[in-house]
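User: For my dataset I need records formatted as: sequence, then structure tokens, nothing else. Please produce one.
Assistant:
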Amino acid sequence: KPDVFYGNPLTATGGNVVAHGSTIRLFLRKGKGEQRIAKIVDAPHLPEGEAVFSITEGGITN
């Protein structure tokens, strides 16, 4: 695929149907240690931003 060299190689889980049916798109990635990072990629009413969180036995913490 030549588009891998020129475009964004990331694709939405669920394909175009889920991507176009979603109002807010998040990109989740692993941070340092047990931390995770959620990035707002596309939202009509929110600016692009990131939040760091952890998933523990007690639930989700920041």
